[in-house]
Amino acid sequence: MEAGERAENLERQAEEAEALAAIYGDDFVRACDGGTVWEIRVPLGDPDGPDERRPSDEVPFDAMLTRDGTPAPDCLVARVVPVETYPSRTPPLVEVHPVGALIQHRMDAALAAMDEEHAASDGDVCVFAFVTRLREMARAWRDEDRPSRRTGRHDDDDDHDAPAHPAI
User: Fold this and answer.
1) Does residue 167 fall inside a structural domain?
2) Are the C-beta atoms of residues 28 and 39 closer than 8 Å to each other?
3) Cα–Cα distance measured from residue 149 to residue 110, given in angstroms and rounded to the nearest whole number
4) Is residue 134 part of a domain?
5) Residue 55 has pLDDT above 70, yes or no
6) Residue 29: CB partners within 8 Å, gap ≥ 6?
7) Which residue of 85, 106, 134, 167 sits 20 to 30 Å from the alpha carbon of 76, by its own alpha carbon?
8) Which CATH number does the domain housing residue 120 bear?
9) Which of 96, 66, 69 is nearest to 81 (CA)?
């Protein structure tokens, strides 16, 4: 990579970080030395709706489910590392935390979304598009996991291709 391309990438990353900070406010944090890691909180509950939380021993009305079937935390954290080849050649590295907050196929979809958004961006910055998409996915997952839709549903990641009635 040429020095000019690297410098342009760093400039675009700095501009993107400023824009993300302005858009997300307290939900955006520059972590590590020099802000080289960006963390963006993504709500899993309805950010526009009333707080429908019940006492701690009850499942919230709109709770998403984690890998072990328990209610998910209030938010995910998208941890983004804009590597020197981002955005011109590669997407940034991305992690979604907490790791167990999503069932496996949802985690896979969340991580794949970054690659897809970068491919669609044609070498432009894409973290905002990724976070927007992650928020849309979280809304869809929350709707899928509403209690009225859970009846008889088993979200075992490994069993989604299994026959409805196993052979005896």
Assistant:
1) no
2) yes
3) 22
4) yes
5) no
6) 38, 39, 40
7) 85
8) 3.10.110.10
9) 96
Does the residue 113 lie in any domain? yes
Distance, CA of 62 to CA of 29 (rounded, Å): 27
d(CA 124, CA 113): 15
Tell me how far CA of residue 135 lies from CA of 14, 19, 57, 89, 95, in angstroms. 23, 18, 27, 25, 15
CA atoms lying within 13 Å on the CB side of residue 88 = 14
pLDDT band at 158; cut points 50, 70, 90:
very low
C-alpha–C-alpha distance, residues 74 and 63, integer Å:
9
Q: What's the predicted TM-score (pTM) here?
A: 0.76
pLDDT of 137 > 80? The answer is: yes
Say how many domains are in the chain: 1
Give the Cβ contact number of residue 128 at 10 Å.
Answer: 16
Give buried/exposed letters for 24-55 (b at 16+ CB in 10 A, else e). Answer: beebbeeeeeeeebbbbbbbbbbeeeeeeeee
Q: Which two tokens stand for residue 89?
A: 């050649």
CA dihedral 126, 131, 137, 139 (to 10 degrees): -150
Before 87, cis peptide (omega within 30)?
Answer: yes
